[in-house]
Amino acid sequence: MQRTILDNIAAIATAPGRGGIGVVRISGHGLTALAQAITGKAPAPRHATYASFLDSTGLVLDQGIALFFPAPHSYTGEDVLELQGHGGPAVLQAVLQRCVELGARLARPGEFTERAFLNNKLDLAQAESVADLIDATTTQAARSAMRSLQGDFSRAIHALVDELIRLRMLVEAMLDFPEEDVDAPDLTRRNRELSSVRDGLERVLTLAQQGSLLREGAHIVLVGQPNVGKSSLLNRLSGEEVALVSDIPGTTRDVIRQAIQLEGVPLHILDTAGLRESQDIVEQMGIARTRSAAEIADLILVLLDATQGMTAADRDILAALPPQIPRLFVFNKCDLMGADGKQEDTDHLYLSAKTGTGLDELRQRLLTLIGWHQEAGVFMARERHLRALKLARRHLAQAASEVARAELFAEELRLAQEALNSITGEFTADDLLGEIFSRFCIGK
Ligand code: GDP
Ligand code: ZN
User: Fold this and answer.
1) Strand 60-69 and strand 9-12: pairing?
2) Which of 157, 169, 313, 318 has the greatest number of beta carbons closer than 10 A?
């Protein structure tokens, strides 16, 4: 997918605000001349050249390091010039402005990486992992993004595609013969090779699902009657005082969001005002928010008072919850009851937000319920990738029921391959590319 790109693009590549160092990055063609105009000298390729950055009159805007990467050995595959100066907004703007005077235009978000993709420096899955690496909020998420960037995910996809191509060749060679001529050994071979691809796809999908969890995290909503201990539990889980704890029922009127991480998986926890009918208009608003928060939850944590067990008010809350979302019942304040009567089960557990009893068990249950099982070698994946993998899975399942009909079989294989190819960006529609790269930050 080689294209001619003629214009030069420039952007401040470092984060906005003040910093020790700030970098203006330029990509394009014939950047030796641009470097010469700004620094007054021709920079040696891939060497740190100490230089003054000059305006059109020769006034020194800043002093720093010029790094020149001639095409094709650069991030974008084009000439790339990096001007590393002082990290102040005004000085960086001035240097950027100078680049614009010299013919560069301001880069769109992600445009450097888009060019790297268009020049075959990265495939699409790798390009996406660049953004995911930058956006990663946990070490594990960053590590899995790095794995994708290094090509682990793409290699796994390519291996599947290669297997598919071999199988297609086998079948398509038969297409000239009448269907009746397919003999038993042929069918056996088709079946065997198809199940091998399907198994491989399942393994990739599992790793990708775990990676997606690392990227997106899971939404957990805390519901329960006023005073049952929702805020206390949230504070326990997050290790800071975020939610207001009080003895007066109904203190938590707004929905409080808290992001925590367990084993590197980001969890977005929402503490709510409790789902119950209320005359108080402020509290009613909280309840409305609870309902809508619960709608998008991956898991609902239903908090109950262990000393009272499930009450009629609790049943009212349960009735108001969206039925399709998995829930875990947690009996809080177990420190107030005797040791007897605390039977753990798969759908409930006992806990004390006050003493911390049962918290570790709760953390483990949360991870299991959202589908995390610490797979080794997880790669960063996005919704888009999961959709493509599932589409490929459907076509392969369809293929399995058409093994004897060469033409239909081959067509399903072709569609599965097309779905897989969309992950790495072979034959990807331009509008999808635009959509993906527009979400990057400027300068990347
Ligand atoms: P919320 O209204 O559901 O958010 O409940 P809070 O977290 O504000 O707690 C209400 C009251 O119950 C406070 O006085 C807490 O200190 C108390 N509480 C919360 N959890 C426990 C617990 O596990 N044991 C005991 N004994 N008290 C608790
Ligand atoms: Zn509360």
Assistant:
1) unpaired
2) 157
Segment 72-86, tens digit of pLDDT: 999 999 999 999 999
Give the position, in ligand 1's atom list, of the atom nearest the Cα of 353.
Answer: 23
- Which residue is closest in CA terms to ligand 1's atom 17? 229
ipTM of the complex: 0.98
Q: Report the top-level CATH class of 9-122.
A: alpha beta
Task: Output the CA 414–ligand 1 centroid distance in Å.
Answer: 59
Closest-CA residue, ligand 1 atom 14, reads 247
What lines the ligand 1 site, CB under 6 Å? 224, 226-232, 245-247, 251-252, 332-333, 335-336, 352-354
Average pLDDT of span 3-9: 75
Rounded to whole angstroms, how far apart are CA atoms 218 and 249? 28
Ligand nearest to the CA of 236: 1
Helices 31-39 and 89-101: crossing angle in degrees, nearest 10, is: 130
**Residues sharing a CB contact under 8 Å with residue 115, sequence separation 6 or more, in sequence order:** 5, 9, 27, 76, 77, 78
* CATH match of 217-370 with 3.40.50.300: yes
The second-level CATH assignment, the architecture, of 131-214+382-425 is Up-down Bundle (1.20)
For 251-268, how does the pLDDT look when each residue is reduced to its tens digit (9 = 90+)?
A: 545 567 778 888 888 898
Check residue 257 and give its pLDDT: 76
